Fold Transmembrane protein, putative (DUF247).
Amino acid sequence: MIQSSESLGMVMKREYIKDDESPGTTLTEMFKDKEHHKSLGTALGEILKHNEPSTSLSTVLGEMFKNNEEKEHIFSDLERGTMLTRPMGEGYIQYLRLSKETTQPADSKIPGLWSSSVRPEFCCIYRVPDRLRKVNPEAYTPQMLLIGPLHHSKKAEALKRYKTDLRYLNYLNMELHKKKCLDSIADIYGDQPVKEFRRIIEINEKFIRDSYAESTIWINTKDFVEMILHDSVFILLFFIQTGSTLNFNKKEDILFNQSRLINATAILEDLILLENQLPYALLEKLFEPFSSNVNTKETFRDITLRAFRFEGKIKEEVRFQHFTDLFRCVRVSTLSLTEEQINIAKNEPPKSRKIMYNADKLDSAGVNFVNVDEENDLSLVITFKDGILKMPCFTVEDNTERVVRNLMALEQCHYPRTTFVCDYISFLDFLINTDQDVDLLAKKELVRTSRISDRNGKQAMFRARGFRISL
């Protein structure tokens, strides 16, 4: 651990440099020698090559955040891609840019540490940056179910607040339900399935941790494995109950139908949230051995798509990294883009946003609005030709804002060059500015809601600006 009186250079010397060097060596002095690295980025990269079990890049960086000047210097190295020994993903670098607006503690054992993943190529689950969250915090906050390390600290908080806050009571009840699910598996199938679950999680612990953009080292291995075990087993059982076509025996029926005692809709909504994710690849690995216990040839992908009602809406070859990513993939799939087209979009330089007229003015100018793809309200396809603007209907339901905000947050963190959902919402933002715009698009069956009936309510609900998050 770094002492308050030590400089980073002293610590690096103590841990990695020769013992005979003089005390008080600074970072600049250490690396001015030709034998040593010439830049901060490559120096830290070299540290990682040693693969010290107790040292990670996040730990080193956390100790460097003593002031904003040092922090800005680190970010300039990160954006050049010189900080790590392997290239960083573009999406991850974008997440670092978004995150630097948030002041985080330097202590690596405090939940919420800003950190960088040692293997950013696996990173896919992010904490929503503060500048996005503050627009509508509720859109990113689970109502009932806490999944994964980013919300792990809330479980202890639930024990203190459940008497005065219904949400924390829900959290506590779901934690008890997870334990009951795990115990029930052991009662019905014996200890072997649970042992196999735990073994798979232990083997994949590093991969799981590397899937998160935020440090998880404040959770020790034992607690981390147990947390992932309870969360993942609950998801497996819940999805088997909601998305499987299996016929259960009497004991299994009791096990899987426990899920009917909870609000399935609320659980599915919580499982869409960006911060509330487990790596999908882990869930598939856990399901494979368990599928023999429940005697099914269905894949976990089949069950997942059925649970979210996405059957037939995504091609088999499309891979997704977690449930939030699945929701984005389903929408992006409607664009029917080739891999080449997606790569072209990634490599295009950023373009300045152009101003477009709202729907009422476009209609007055002779533009004809046409609803296409009436059966697929998830479509992002918009075309304009010969004065005809064709687009799908945008449907607003109770959970629409939560879904849209989390998809947009995922794109801004992970897909900064292919922000298809953000672009679609931005387009709606231009179209809808007044009540007249809403009425026109509703008449053309291009917007629809079952929630709002009054005129002012419609505008408030449909204005895409209500969804926008700092594009």
